[in-house]
User: What shape does this take?
Amino acid sequence: MNRWFRWQGFVAFLGVTISICLVWALVVDPVIKRIIEKTGTKIVGAKVELEKADLSLFPVGLTLFGLQVTDPDEPMKNAVEIGRIAGTADSFQLLRRKVIINEMSVEGVRLGTQRIRSGAISKKTEKGGKDEKKGSASGFPMMKMPDIQDILGKENLQTLQLVQSIKRDIESGKELWTKNIAGLPGKEKIDGYRKRIEALKGVKGSKNIGDIGGILGAAGDAQTLYKDIEKDLESLQKSQKGLNATLAKFKDQIAKIEKAPQEDIRRLSEKYGFSAYGLANMSRFFIEPGITAWVDRGLYWKARLEPLVERAGRKKGNVEVVKPLRAKGSDVRFKEKEPLPDLLIRVAKVSVQLPMGDFSGVVKNITPDQDILGQPLLFAFSGEKLSGVRSVRLDGAVNRVSHGSPEDSINLRLEGYKIQPKSISQDSSLPLTLEKGDADLELRAALSKGFIDATVAAKLQGVRFSAGGSDAQSGFGKAVSSALSGVSTVGIKARITGPADNYQMQISSNLDDILKNAVGSIIKDQVAQFENKLRAAISDKVSGPLQEAKGSLGGFEGLGTEVENRISQLTGIQGGGVQKESSFGGFQLPFKLPVR
Amino acid sequence: MITIIAKILKALNSETDPAQIGLAVGFSLIAGLTPILSIHNIVVLFLVLILRVNISIFIVGTGIFSGLSYLLDPVFHKIGFGALTAGPLEGLWTSFYNLPLFRIERFNNSIVMGSLLFSIALFLPVFIFSMFIVRRYREHILERVRKTRIMQMIMASRIYSAYQAVSGWGGNI
Assistant: This one.
């Protein structure tokens, strides 16, 4: 027995196990700190730092101190800084590798705090939803005529794309028809028919023609020849028809393309604000950039935090395969007797420190496995009698209960917000500032299956605008600043709809009419001028390639002539050489060939 | 490190049972190829300490196989994923999944499962092959190695001094 066992190994095993436990107890806090920093950095795309992590064993709990999440777009700023996060986990569930925290407190949350060191990571941060959607700064774009060549340089003209596309289609069509026509009866076959006719004519002089068998044989050959010619004629005529249809289709498309610049003009005029719509909705030029920035920022952070609310899992038979956030490989999840998410924070009490005061609330059901829990993440925050705001309420839901049908919603109600001086137009020649005012704002937004539907309603009272810059004293600028100086109440309604990556925004405001009355006639002239210049420039750019496309149609006409020529030769042979009810070149058969 | 090499040389050159060396290589295969912080590796450690397994060879083998495991991760993932998603085994895995011990083991991770299956499957062949190699070495190579010029040089070096030191310990640990 002792040959195989060494009983002192028990003691060694106990010693090793106790040593491992002691080392674990010593290093676990730094290890947790490192894991949180590494995983957080991976999710956010910028440095996530933690001052200290403290794991307690009785009861099992974790407290984090000084969490800083860098804003990936401003590495010298924290998107969020949290003073303390504390929670205790269910010990029994931990044995099932499930982290279930019934209540967590998140204290001292601050937004947009300054960092001492940059939080950028060397790997280039993916911009995600933060791309500029409209590509324009706030201000009145129609105030100055933009450089048309500059616009055409950076915009893709639909007309030009259509021309390139039809050129490619014509070339491939020509290639196809050249091949088709090469396969049709050509000179060799026609010469063959001629020879066969000559041979039949030779029968006429033969002495054997006199007997019935000879006559019937010659008649049979003539009938076969006639059928062969007719078959070829049919296939040539069919091809001619197809070729003509293709040619007509291309001509029709070219005619349509010739009208296409109008669509480009409309689109670019719209985009650069030189349109009837732009004239009727001038307020959007300084309202839209602000709303767009907020929407984009919201969508960007939503995308960043997506792994925390939904794990990218896929079904394989009855089991689900998920990619763990940290570990390698894939985790396969089987049916559980008591299904519970791997991570669940049932309630997180959050206290946010804003410059205007404390803003507190709760977040419920934080888990990446909402489908297992069967409940969405809910949040509700409120703040009363804050400095500069009478009341704020924010609530919403992030619903990933059903895979493939994500639904998010957010509602914000802000009352009595004292507006601080804010620039609403950054145009250097006519900077506009909203100096003061009281605002009530209501936002309702829903994002379902990637489609956004949001409404924003704002009422601003006691407002005062100021205009500066070189243009404020003359023409357009003077008219705008004069019109805005008489405004004391502003109502804004915005509706945002469409796919999250390409949403549309409709904005209306009482400022539209005020601005239209003030500067409408000036802008109308600008719009007409812009359209004319754009039309001329597009025409210049497109005319060359369009002429090339038209020129390449000539090749089709050549192919048509070739087919036409073959048809006429075969028709000639049919008419002159072999006739249904005629002799072979004057030789009269004693009966008639069957008429088809 | 020198002491460990000396211990390995001692184990190979002494009367240590080839089965003890074979077991050390087999256990190091499991400990090295599978994620080190797994429940089954506590069992492996227990067995290594309680059975007369050559610990020096186990330590060195674990190091070598750990390095190798990084290269084999894609293979382990495929094996583990295939086993975990195999229809006939679903009932077995589901019952394991509902037991806390197996959840701590993380058997449902493709790499844990793949590496464990791979190393268990190779345990017996590696055990037998190692015994065979040790026997062949002692029978045919040992004497010739001792007579080589390199070995003569080593025998004059620090490693050999360490080897001689451990030879005198008498134990088989």
